[in-house]
Amino acid sequence: MTDEDTHELGPLAALQGVWEGVSRAPMFRPDDDRTEIERNAFRERLEFEPTGLVENHEQSLYGLRYFRVAWRLGAEDPFHEQVGYWLWDAEAKQVMLSFVVPRGICVLAGGPAEPDAKSFRLEAEEGSDVFGISSGTLSQRAVQDRPLSHRRDLRRGRVLFVRGGHGHAHQRSF
Predict the structure, then answer these.
(1) Which helix (H) or strand (E) holds 81?
(2) Within-domain flag for 21
(3) Is the pTM for the entire model greater than 0.90?
(4) Domain contains 174
(5) Which helix (H) or strand (E) holds 8?
(6) How far apart are CA 111 and CA 6, in angstroms?
(7) Reported confidence tier of residue 2, pLDDT bands at 50, 70, 90
(8) Dist CA 142 CA 28 (whole Å)
(9) CATH no. for residue 104?
(10) Three-class DSSP category at 44
(11) What domain range includes position 36?
């Protein structure tokens, strides 16, 4: 990846690398009705690797391969993983996030951003043809009536993730 390619990542450029953090974010309890929410301490690792230019007919995108894994504190085995791409469309001034959760959930979220933005918001809604959440029948209960609202704040060497009003921060590891 050249310096020019890094510049072409727009607001995603600061995400490159590996980020790690600990959180006490709200999670649904593993009960059948999924009505109770509890706070669980967990650690996360996020990796962002540049893809270079991705051409889609007249659309030119630059992006980052994305991998996220989370473990409950003290646990060896992860309880959550995501694999996907962060994409920057400079012409449309739009950031997109596509990822798959290995429980039958696929997400394509998006939102507007300026090339030098340090903060931006992505949204997706179940059943939407544009920026939507899709799931298998069993996983459908987990996402039903829970749209994704995802904000990134890339200030002071930290990345803040906010989902549904609850945030947690990660530090870049070197």
Answers:
(1) strand 80-89
(2) yes
(3) no
(4) no
(5) helix 3-8
(6) 20
(7) low
(8) 9
(9) 2.40.128.20
(10) strand
(11) 3-163
pLDDT in tens, 94-114: 999 999 988 888 889 999 999
Q: How many domains does the chain have?
A: 1
Residues 151 and 135: beta-carbon distance below 8 Å: no
Please state the rounded mean pLDDT for residues 12-36. Answer: 70
Residues 174 and 168: their CA atoms lie apart, in Å, by 20
Q: Which residues contact 5 (CB under 8 A, 6 or more apart)?
A: 50, 52, 53, 62
Whether 150 and 122 have beta carbons less than 8 Å apart is answered as yes
Q: Is residue 170 part of a domain?
A: no
What is the C-alpha to C-alpha distance for residues 85 and 19, in angstroms, rounded to an integer? 16
Among residues 171, 169, 172, 122, which one has the least CA distance to residue 24? 169
Q: Which H/E stretch holds residue 125?
A: strand 119-126
Q: pLDDT class for 11, splitting at 50, 70, 90?
A: very high
Q: Is 104 left (phi over 0), alpha (psi -120 to 50) or beta?
A: left
Residue 89 lies in a domain: yes
Q: Is the pLDDT of residue 64 over 90?
A: yes
